[in-house]
Amino acid sequence: MADLALMFGGDLAIGPTGDLLLADAAVLTQQRVLRRLLTNAGDYLWQLSYGAGLGQFVGQPSAPAAIAGVVRSQMLQEAGVARSPAPTTAALINSDGTVTLSVSYADALSGATYSLSFTV
């Protein structure tokens, strides 16, 4: 089933025919991974344990290993992320105190490898 292309924090996009842009399975998995990682646990009313809550690390002493552990455990809860090979995560502490997170995972359906990188 097709779903709308809507990245976390973004706007709906228009497709080449003027309709709303739809997401294929790979893009849908990326959308779901980002939403899970950036949603605080308890904020999703229908599933209170949903979300990694990466925002909880903002303003705290740098803890790249803790961040990477939370990300890995949450990613394995997404059906679109393959369990083997396991997702890899790298958290880099920037000089301004922000954390750049790089995630690599295999798609559960196609086996193709995808990477995401964003700053928290």
Question: What class do helices, strands and sheet pairing give?
Answer: alpha+beta
Q: Report the CATH architecture.
A: Roll
CATH topology: Nuclear Transport Factor 2, Chain: A
Strands of the biggest beta sheet: in what spatial order?
3-4-5
Q: Which residues sit in consecutive blocks of at least 5 with pLDDT less than 50?
A: none
Taking the alpha carbons of the first and last residues, their distance comes to 31 Å
Relative helix content: 10-25%
Return the CATH class.
Alpha Beta
Total helical segments: 2
Describe the fold and architecture:
Helices cover 22% and strands 21% of the residues. It has helices at 25-38, 64-75, and strands at 3-4, 22-23, 88-93, 99-106, 113-119. The strands form 2 sheets. It has a 3-stranded antiparallel β-sheet, with helices on one face. The longest helix has 14 residues, at 25-38. The chain is globular and about 50 Å long. It starts with a strand and ends with a strand. The model has no long low-confidence stretch (mean pLDDT 86).
SSE diagram, text form:
Layout: E1 3-4, E2 22-23, H1 25-38, H2 64-75, E3 88-93, E4 99-106, E5 113-119
Antiparallel strand pairs: 1-2, 3-4, 4-5
Which terms summarize this structure?
single chain; 120 residues; alpha+beta; Nuclear Transport Factor 2, Chain: A; two-stranded antiparallel ribbon; 5 strands; globular
